[in-house]
Amino acid sequence: MLGVPEADPMNLQKSDRRSFLRAAAASAAGAAFLPQALASGARCQMLPGEPGKNLVLVQLSGGNDGLATVIPHGDDELRRRRRTTVHKASEVLKLDDYRGLNPGLRSLRGRFDQGQMAIVEGCGYPDAIRSHFKSYEVWHTGHRAGRISGDGWVGRLASTCWAEEPRPDRVVHFGGKAPYSLFSREQPPVALASPTGYRWFGDEDAYARGGAAICEHEMEQDPRHVGRDDALQRLRATLDDARESSGRIRGAAATYRTDVEYPKTPLSAGLRDVAALVNARSGTQIFSVADRGYDTHSRQRQAHDRKMQELGDALGAFLEDLDRSEAGRDTVVLVFSEFGRRVAENGSSGHDHGKAGPMFVLGHSVKGGLYGAHPSLTQLDAGDLAFTTDFRSVYATLIGGLFGADPARVLGAEYPLLPLI
User: Are 338 and 9 in contact (CB under 8 A)?
Assistant: First the structure.
């Protein structure tokens, strides 16, 4: 099995140097492990002269409660099953007679009214897993098998689209350790803790030293390993490019000026850095940030409402900032979580791990509105909301609609597309 980093759903641990090097060597010498579409180096099919689109991934880590995010205020069953965590109908930002948004998402309600927000309801997958760890893997790879299936879905997209035009900063994560969705054996992502904390995904100095040692050893022992040597040489060259790009990325973030006032939260800080790179047209096309704190097993109402307010305020400022430039208007934001929460309250005024939940897609390129079907509160899947939309349909729609790639070649199967791009 190819070496891949350990996946901690709350705070993904980076791969150690040795496993990362093994994975790098395997990427060239073990092409049989790759799907044919990725090994072929197929490019994305964008129209001539069309400006590049950007995708921003916002993960709500811990399992966001979809029923307290997109609230079925018109369903009496909700009030029967939730005593302390339910919102009064008068508090909800109503979208129609049945559903509305959490009161903390007022800025997103404005985007919905402008037709720039798609709400995809009931997102999940068959035989869903309630484990943070395993469900995280499913969402980040797009495969039920999780990490053993190989690269993350964004990593596969990068390998498909830009195999012939690799850039070390094509995919960037703000906030420290990169999530598994970005993992690629061919085009590793860049992870930044802060504008002044740029670092390569992994220990770059040890990686460079270890890579050279492995190459020399393998060349001495067996000339058949020349392919692996070439792969490591290419990866070292990419690492050099990453070092060069560090100044550009730090500079873009440090010198960025905007009239938009961002809240003083970690999510807002990460999104402001994303806006800096987007507006600089730095060459990055896929960005990632994560917001933690959604594992609301107890006293959910106060904690979750606070997270919704932080999310709404951060995204509101970010989208306002993106409005200011053509590059910003070419940017689409995807908001997701690894699962939802159970319908009924537990004994601690909270909700345990569930299954289906909503996804948000925002931006000027988005055809706003409601997509999918809100799951039934009475026809449950072992006490959980039954999914009505496969989350990979959203991925597939973005893969094709933003980057012109064949979704089946990236995801390994065909999924129904949604008319939201």
Answer: yes
Q: What angle do CA 162, 272, 294 make, to 5 degrees?
A: 90
Token pair 């990055």 is at which residue?
284
- Token pair, residue 340, equals 């939802």
Give the C-alpha separation, 278 to 155, whole Å: 20
Distances (CA, A) of 213 to 19, 187, 202, 421: 14, 21, 17, 48
Identify the residue whose tokens are 């190989």. 150
Nearest alpha carbon to residue 318 among 271, 283, 273: 271
State the Cα–Cα distance between residues 308 and 318, nearest whole angstrom.
15
Which tokens go with 22?
A: 């093994």
The one-character DSSP state at 53 is: P
Contacts of 88 (CB under 8 A, 6+ apart): none
Tens of pLDDT, residues 284-296: 999 999 999 999 9
Burial 112-135 (b: 16+ CB within 10 A, else e): beeebbbbbbbbbbeebbbebebb
Pick among 3.30.1460, 3.40.720, 3.30.1360, 3.30.750: CATH of 17-411: 3.40.720
pLDDT digits (tens, 9 = 90+) for 107-118: 999 999 999 999
Measured between alpha carbons, how far is 323 from 69 in angstroms, rounded to an integer?
25
Q: For the whole prediction, is pTM greater than 0.85? A: no
> Phi and psi dihedrals of 311, rounded to 5?
-65, -50
Each residue of 148-179: pLDDT tens digit?
Answer: 999 999 999 999 999 888 777 899 998 878 99
* Closest listed residue to residue 291, CA positions, set 307, 280, 278: 307
Q: Where are the domains of the chain?
A: 17-411
